[in-house]
Amino acid sequence: xxxxxxxxxxxxxxxxxxxxxxxxxxxxxxxxxxxxxxxxxxxxxxxxxxxxxxxxxxxxxxxxxxxxxxxxxxxxxxxxxxxxxxxxxxxxxxxxxxxxxxxxxxxxxxxxxxxxxxxxxxxxxxxxxxxxxxxxxxxxxxxxxxxxxxxxxxxxxxxxxxxxxxxxxxxxxxxxxxxxxxxxxxxxxxxxxxxxxxxxxxxxxxxxxxxxxxxxxxxxxxxxxxxxxxxxxxxxxxxxxxxxxxxxxxxxxxxxxxxxxxxxxxxxxxxxxxxxxxxxxxxxxxxxxxxxxxxxxxxxxxxxxxxxxxxxxxxxxxxxxxxxxxxxxxxxxxxxxxxxxxxxxxxxxxxxxxxxxxxxxxxxxxxxxxxxxxxxxxxxxxxxxxxxxxxxxxxxxxxxxxxxxxxxxxxxxxxxxxxxxxxxxxxxxxxxxxxxxxxxxxxxxxxxxxxxxxxxxxxxxxxxxxxxxxxxxxxxxxxxxxxxxxxxxxxxxxxxxxxxxxxxxxxxxxxxxxxxxxxxxxxxxxxxxxxxxxxxxxxxxxxxxxxxxxxxxxxxxxxxxxxxxxxxxxxxxxxxxxxxxxxxxxxxxxxxxxxxxxxxxxxxxxxxxxxxxxxxxxxxxxxxxxxxxxxxxxxxxxxxxxxxxxxxxxxxxxxxxxxxxxxxxxxxxxxxxxxxxxxxxxxxxxxxxxxxxxxxxxxxxxxxxxxxxxxxxxxxxxxxxxxxxxxxxxxxxxxxxxxxxxxxxxxxxxxxxxxxxxxxxxxxxxxxxxxxxxxxxxxxxxxxxxxxxxxxxxxxxxxxxxxxxxxxxxxxxxxxxxxxxxxxxxxxxxxxxxxxxxxxxxxxxxxxxxxxxxxxxxxxxxxx
Length: 864
Description:
The chain is α+β, with helices and mostly antiparallel strands. The chain is 34% helix and 26% strand. The protein is built from 24 helices and 40 strands. α12 packs across α13.
């Protein structure tokens, strides 16, 4: 095919550390003629791991690219780091990919970091090809691996064999349109398979060995045939994903052209991270492949390049028609103080370290004016060692780091009103903000309920900017706040005296004042861990995890080893790998990755140890400034309500109200709220017109008013395809399978009196609004076009779960993890199927007992 007519593909290689990713990349480059001889990690001569630190350690640290050709594609291959400490570097590369190749070790299977990568791939909605490597080694089991992929990642993971009837049937089962095409034509076309892969409804799996070149050609053929380029139209757009420097120190902006084209000497207009407009000339356009590059006269949509001449670009930046990408999910959880060599001036060192932060924004170099110390935020031990080596190689500085400090976060535990007033002479601003808690991982959300008749729209926009522009600190330890909704409730400006900076002061003070009088919660980072060790040491490991206040799943066999996965506080788990190696005699292996923030179980102890005094922190004061007799005066935070000019926006609770009455009233409000949600989702609620069969029941126990009701949300298609009987029926007629499931669930609810919502992915029809209905005693929902059942279930579970005990039925691990983090109960589809079958047995027994009783009564009446 003519080179100009080929599709441009950007493909990323992702894997858990030591899964064989670099070996696979060497095989791909060798088979496509890019290199004459494949390199090896252990020989320190691989094509892409060309940095001295990578070759000395045998791991990928920096994402790098290579270019090669396939019959129908011009490919840019991006090799990404596999170690969890460099997850942010990997995530930045995902934003420019057309698809990804996820490498799984045939000897280790799905690791904890593999699941993290899978969540990232889902976040960026990337099509995925899976390559299971190291299958040339003994004790590898392909059937076991594919079962694990389907269980832990997705049941859409299928061994690629487009001509196999079994493959065709399994691929068609996951969407209604594919099933219709398969039933109509007897097979899926290549375009159909390509579309399923693009929609993430099919993840083709390949087995082989990068070292032996087994299965690699088949992978390349499938990528060439089925991967789709995301190249856009003629309007220029570009996405910056990385900042680097060449060996001469010249700044490089790595980007993908997403639309139009770009030439050297073009005058490019863009906005820097501060929002300021910049206009700079492109000097060179480089196409890198390994260490070497060629200069291009023009690059087109779909191509990846590095340009010189731009001085203030940043990773995640959109240029032209392209928009910015959200910050990476991977965040550092440890902060390290930097000790400089004696006699070295920090003022000279900080600008140099900022260059490293420019290349890796998650480093976050911080100068503490009080302690006169520099600190850096890092992910873990490996990254600390790499950071020290980089500073030495780049700037010839021998620095050292301390043992690290936990980076806590704070959130609010209850709704509160924050009031800020700033009125020195000839200045005026007052702001009332509502602070509310949000689910874990939500970050800071900003909104307004203030009428523009009360406060002009421009002032409200300024207030929102003031809220967002700063990392506001909590009042327990002075740590940044998160998982909080901040709403503008009211405000006032003065026609003559109010300036923009007045509202900034009022906003900062309002947020602090609201937290001072509220219940605050200290959050600490958790690691998601995977621990492998010999069976005889499993008891020791479980004891250690419990001592850490960690949570873990049941141990699983991994060949001759046992594996435990779970969550544990970073403060307790940090440094455990050395202890593990000691008591397991070098056989144990610990994999750690960020697991999110959760309430600190030793909050009082940590707060006391840190000893933060929020009232002494004058840069983050909770006090307000009022004016009287021509002069401003300070008012302490707990007295601001006595001086404020606007009414409070939160009604005071009646202190004399009896506790039981408040509980009942609160329960009544919750019931109404829930009913509004259910009516919104499923329409007017019709009460059941029949009751479950008569049962002998114990007298009902009156529960306290605060007892939560039970609600069940079922992922419909997930349950159908997990149930062999329904799965077989779906292969013949999907409508019949859905109807059969509704009948089964209706009987279940009739017997258990449970409230249940059954959710299906909507029809694949553009503009489809979705549908809601009641089927006897259950609610049924088809999601709208563009909304997955996953997203709908998570949203509904969150809304109902605030005040009710919700159980989500699914085997989708990502829904289950989200449910776990929001406090929602979860049950796998297989577990629920067993529960449904047990219920059917009970109903059958009940009917038999009822029939027997009726027969005896009839016989008795006949005798009489």
